[in-house]
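2024-03-11 09:14:02 INFO queue: dequeued item Response regulator, len=465
2024-03-11 09:14:02 INFO validating residues
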Amino acid sequence: MIKVLIVDDDKLVRKGISSAMPWSEFNMEVVGEASNGAKALDFLKSQPVDLMLTDLAMPVMSGIELMRAARQLYPKLHIVVLTLHQDFDYIQEALRLGAIDYIAKVQLEKEQFEHVLHRIHTRIDGLTNINPRMPSQNEINVHYQNVYALVSQDHKSDQKWPLELTSQGEEIRWEVERNSWMWAAPQYGEEQLFHQLKESLDQVPQSTLLVLSDVQQRTWSQIKDWIMNYTETSLFYAYNPHEQVIAVSMNEEYTFSKEPQDEDIDRIKKSWFQTPWAHHDSYYNQLIEQFKSLQLRKGQLMGLLYSIVMEWNHLFARTTLGKISMIHSFESWYEVEEWIKQTAAGIRKSDEKTAYSQEIIDAVKKAVMIMQHDMEQAYTASGLSQQLNISRSYFSQCFKDLMGKTFNEYSRFIRVEKSKEYLLNTNNTIFWIAERVGYTDEKYFSRIFRELTGHLPSEYRQLGR
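2024-03-11 09:14:37 INFO prediction written
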């Protein structure tokens, strides 16, 4: 049973989520509630919790601060973010801290309860290693020439070994972990074992046969740990349904690279938004190589993809440039790359619907990203059109047709949207927020905010909380 803790400063939200969602259908049980991060940490100390749902904007200790503390104290704890609005910077930070999913409260309707819990349960299931079952002699040194490991990348269901092998003499088969097995046979029976395992690949979904060399003088326990580590690192990126047999040496170390640097993440996001990768193979291949070179863990990769999709849809979902559908789960880089290919096709299809050239579409996208990423600057249509080498009048016309708003309307819109995030997720002053979104006059900022939202910034903050 997965034990769940709900953390939110709104009692009605806590009670609603606790009572309305079909937890038991997904082997989950709500064991506690907390109104802020500090109380949540106290609860975590008192009893075990497997999954924590936490709001981001809370008094005493914010959800981000809670996540940082919980990650250090309880590294195996799964975390899902609850958010009132799709406040992208904070969700991205939460995903980079290890959150496995997020739930936007405004979109949480009764018919979505089951879908949300199924998605969360699937992700927990894919990230949780079942305790391996190993024989008592697992510390005995191996005397075989090679060890064979059949690993399935399909973690959505329990795979049962589908084939009874025709044994020749002494043969060993052990289950390494769920959906993963290893075999060994004496030299005279090894060729037959290899061919039978190779033939069985079609019966096990998303499977790879690893042929491990340099196994002598290692214990079965060491080999098992090596297989699990390789599966979590290199095999995630090496899996290919068209090349299902991989020879590996146990003398090689397969580990993840260091934590990705912010500049590496920014470079990928810039390539995604500001280069025509969906239209040109050279840019596409460059983007793929940038992704793969980071060698991100599955959770980190999911967080990066989520942040890209959310930001894209935040910017372009309601424009002629179209919406991107998120990949909800993946078990290998092969699946991620297939999703990127499909996304590229979707972007091309949306771009083809417009009357403008690809160069103009890319220029408008670049202008939008420049405005989004540096709101303290007072960008003008004249200044950006000059920077992009387009006439001001033509740039203004293209911008309105593609984005659905004039340049000035869009500029005010994104600044007010960003200020909403600051109001709900920080305790900073209105003047501080106004400056961060490009307004040096607090009164003018408040007037613009009220024109677009119907409330003063202080009223909006109070209502949101």
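2024-03-11 09:14:37 INFO annotate: The beta strands are 2-7, 28-34, 51-55, 78-83, 101-104, 147-152, 172-177, 180-184, 207-213, 245-249.
2024-03-11 09:14:38 INFO item closed
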